[in-house]
Specification:
It contains four helices and no strands. Helix content is about 75%, strand content about 0%.
Length: about 80
């Protein structure tokens, strides 16, 4: 396996979706290629961060609106 193939299979590797033979070749390449190990670490960190962003609940702003704003909205609606 070469560096290009490692890059192509990163998502499948992290998802555990590579067949045994490809997974073994992938790991063998990582043993000898420091650049691919760094790339894998960076890619995995990016995936983890992107997943964590989706897990945070949305923050709600329940602070009251200023009285003047409320009056202006009601006046604009004709209420």
């Amino acid at each position: 396996m070469n560096c290009r193939e490692v890059a192509d299979f990163l998502s499948d590797y992290l998802d555990g979706a590579l067949p045994l033979r490809q997974r073994l070749m992938f790991r063998l390449h990582l043993l000898v290629c420091r650049d691919c190990r760094r790339y894998l670490d960076s890619f995995a960190a990016t995936v983890k961060l992107s997943h964590s962003l989706g897990e945070r609940p949305a923050e709600e702003d329940n602070s009251p609106i200023p009285e003047a704003l409320g009056q202006a909205i009601l006046a604009a609606r004709g209420d």
